[in-house]
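Hi there. Long-time user, first ticket. I'm pasting a complex I've been working with (about 910 residues overall). I'd like to know whether the download I got is complete or cut off, because the file seemed smaller than I expected. Thanks.
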Amino acid sequence: MVKNKKGVPRLLSYAINTLLFVVFLVILNSLINSGIFSSYYVKILMLIAINIILAVSLNLATGFLGQLPLGHAGFMAVGAYSSAIFMKATTLPNIAAFPIGLILGGIVAAIFGFIIGIPALRLRGDYLAIITLGFGEIIRVVLLNIDSVLGFNFTYGASSLKNIPKTTTVTNAFICVFIVFYIIHTTIKSKHGRAVLSIRENEIAAESCGVNTTYYKTMAFVMSAFFAGVAGSLYAGYVGILNPSGFAFMKSIEILVMVVLGGMGSLIGSAISATVLTVLPELLRSFSEYRMVAYSLLLIVVMIFKPSGLMGTYDFSLSRIIGKSGDKISSLLGGRKEGER
Amino acid sequence: MRDVNKAIIPERDKDKTPAIECIGLGIDFGGLTAVDNFNFTLGRTEIAGLIGPNGAGKTTVFNLLTKVYQPTRGQMLLLGKDTKNMTITQANKAGIARTFQNIRLFKDLSVMDNVLIGLHNEIRYSLAEAVLRLPSYWRAEKVARERALDLLSIFDMADMAEKQAGSLPYGAQRRLEIVRALATNPTLLLLDEPAAGMNPSETGELMENIRKIRDMFQISILLIEHDMNLVMGICEGIAVLNYGRIIAKGTPDEIKSDPNVIEAYLGKKGNSNA
Amino acid sequence: MSVFSTIVSQIFNGLQSGSVYALVALGYSMVYGIIMLLNFAHGDIIMVGAYIVWVLMSLLTLPPVIGTVAAVVGCTLLGIIIEKVAYAPLRKSPRLSLLITAIGVSFFLENIAQLVMGAGSKPMPTIIKGTNIEIGDAHISFVAIVTIIVSVITMLLLTLLVQKTKMGKAMRAVSEDMDSAKLMGININRTISFTFAVGSALAGIAAVLYSCAYPQASPTMGSMLGLKAFVAAVLGGIGSIPGAMIGGFAIGLLEAFVSAAGLSVWKDGVVFTILIIVLIVKPTGIMGRTMSEKV
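Hi, the file is complete. Here it is re-exported in full:
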């Protein structure tokens, strides 16, 4: 068995992480079932899970790939609407329909990501930002007006898509979080992930090392869009009613703030800041009109004074904490040191 | 079928396809000719130097060879294969690796990761295999890491594997770039000012290592360098570039006594090691 | 109205909004040329300019001349301040950090405006008065003529500034190669500040002209206007003054005709589709030159 430096067997560390996640779910569920967590808390918990997936998926494109998509809400919208329309139409039992809806939402978003990514990613510079921003706006316009073109009710435009089955629960939302985390983590810690990182670090050097940069840019970007679509599907099953206005540019910026604050390139940072930025506005409702001002200031201040975000590129692993508690962690790209000797 | 006239050392590797062959290569930037009529052949396992005053077009030649720029005219054969319309990535896969004048490491990544990215095309497993952490993933990663450590140990850098690349001293960064380039398994290695910023003892070591690399990997090496001790010390052939054209080709001794070179370049007073 | 007069009046509508796009596009183009930053806040500077006009003319009932001058001066100062406070500290940072900061600034301006001025839109006073011109049975508004003339003159002056003056030479040098320019003794900070000042002054002029065409000021008015102007800059070729002009007019005309065809809800979609097509077919734009990274 392959061991890491500190001697915690690799597969065991995966097992420990999984086990701790299961324990976390069980505790969460018993708190909900026993009524300690009111339905208000449950709603916030679901929102936290959705925002974590959004932030982590954007981080893949921003923190790891080094691009700046500004239409993340657009991908979320595409995922939300496709899964919602499917869920309303399907006669399958929820247990089967739910995962299909999730994956469908992800795939439709990924297809859009692919179509947008191909022209934008071929070019260096900020074109991806502007194209994705444009895409987000186009999606919103299309969702609002498509019914008049089609001649029948499809997205219900401004009058909202209603009565979507509320299939999202705390448990399945957090299982999704876990899976997304796992997939992004294992991708990053592989030759494919290193290729993505090399593009962020130095594109010309990456090409000179034989890395097919167009392929890997597209891969990371499409993956990011896919997970945004999944988050959108969860969101549709959480609110039960969709309106295009919920997926405006503001939403994309909100997700970006989560990523920037948590640290570009740190998955756990994204999760923490997504949690904080979901809970904080709830606590500070009376200051809600200052929220967006605060967000914009946060973006500027973090970039000027601590561009690495709160967690830098540090990624935390439960098994490592167990494996070398108290050990000083000097981490590069996160984490688990993979040099085995 | 080797054009003897273009070779720096005609008698070398006569029977083999040259590592690289340039025929009338040239590039213009907005009407300005940067490199013109570049005829050049490099034999297998040859160490050659490309020298010339600042702005002579040396790095432009490297950028042409590695496909950062597409030539305006002329042809370039890599192991006998035409490289027309190749991308940088394809050129690397076809066997050209390089270092950069202004070091381009993956600074925020570890030394190990830098070399592993060099080994990218050597490591073979799919994304699905990586995500599912199948045995093929573990195996390939293990082999790659061992290979990376082997390569690093050429420059005695194996113990730095976990350090952040950007935190290394300047000389070590230059060496790491060479290791990373070697990891891509090239047939031709281009070194852009490998000794820049090194002290004489480091340069001496570097010379040894360049020779060692050639002998170990049996590859051709072309280097741009301003340090004449290094160039004259290890290059078997030298081409001198001035104003984008080759003005002289030959062995170090021939170059030293070539009147064109002396006039264009070495003759400058107070610039004896330029 | 005949088809001819519809076409004539749509052409002038298009040229009018195109002039505004062109002025704004220049600001993007200049800043992008010099520090490779897509200055998201540029559109919002126009919004601030429009509010300055509103405050001075509607609230304080001052004459249009004062409103106009104050808007241009205010925008110029705002541009300089934004550069000094938010962008200058990041000169050595990765481009991504700079871009995120620009988004932050843009977002900040919009939200502050919303806090101070309220989310609703304010009706703008009449700034330019004059008799409309009739060509056949087509009405061409006086404002449209003034807008087009002002922007053409502005652009000619800008060309002279960039081509003939010492500061213009410095701007071109810095955008070519910042490090070499520094070695040649050019004051980088001053040159960048000056570029922002000029770009923002153009935004101030654009604010006044835009307010004449669409007499409303709202906190988010600048963001879509800015984005379209950026598309115009890309279409014409980033870094080129005539390119920005051509791009601006092209986008303006396109919008006018899409609206005339009764498809105005799809206007924004069409503009962004154009952007995507340009980037696929000719990423350097109509007049642009290749900007390749130095290796």
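A couple of notes from our side: Confidence is low (pLDDT under 50) at residues 1-7, 323-341 of chain A. Residues 21 and 331 of chain A are 23 Å apart (CA to CA).
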